[in-house]
Amino acid sequence: MFRKKRVFLTRLISLQLDKEVIQVPVREVSIRMFEARHGPGSMSRILQELVQPCTSFTEIAKRYNFSRERPRQIYEKLLVPYLPLKSGNERIKFCSMNRPHVKEWPEVTLAVWKEARKQGFEVTYINHKIPSTGHINTFSRRLLINGHICQIKRSTTVHDSSKYGQGYTKYVHVNFRNVEGIQFFILVAKVNEDTRFYIIPKGMIIQVAGKDKNIFIPVDGYSNYLHKFPPKLNWVACRDAWHQLEEVLCQQTTESTLQSSPTATE
Description:
Elements: E1 10-17, E2 20-27, H1 28-38, H2 42-50, H3 57-64, H4 69-79, H5 88-97, H6 107-118, E3 123-129, E4 136-145, E5 148-155, E6 159-160, E7 170-175, E8 184-191, E9 194-201, H7 202-208, E10 214-218, E11 258-259
Parallel strand pairs: 5-8
Antiparallel strand pairs: 1-2, 3-4, 3-11, 4-5, 6-7, 7-10, 8-9
């Protein structure tokens, strides 16, 4: 005689995964047993926590007062078929690539972050893998703003050339040595207690930068003196030119993961 195949009643539990909703079938008897011990709705809650890759099994185990092996079992039994990360190790690697690896954000980076958010842009940090060690690092002065890779530069010293004669201008001296992989430079200049943001496309830097990559940028407009040595580019037009970042570009990065940072939000 053949045994009759047992049929178990199942319930579909809806879980939010990024921007989509997935339906996970769970045996009704398993739900009742789990919720009898941990309270009504506890099965849905623990599954929702498990689909978040940066929530560790240990954290979940402490909240529900059982061993960390239990969340792993639930994850592998119920969620693995529906998720790209198939094990705890894969979750750890993914999470390492998707969190900032800086102890403290530089003040200039936070200033650009807040100003870009104020302009209505999406801002994310950029992680990269160090080839020699395999460790994950975060660029402390590089941000992805509306899909554009932006390098942040700062100048706190304004040089006043007025002592050399009438018509000389005030300027800041900035070095743009490394331009590889950058699409925009954001210069933060402190002028008379006023913080100014200059959004400079990489192409402008390449046009005027010499061998030493040093550039002198006027910060008070163009003076009469400049008719003798006319500037090659209109730097004044770069001031607060956030509109240059309005076009969203495809995020094309290798060995980099981009994620919103909770420490730098307004």
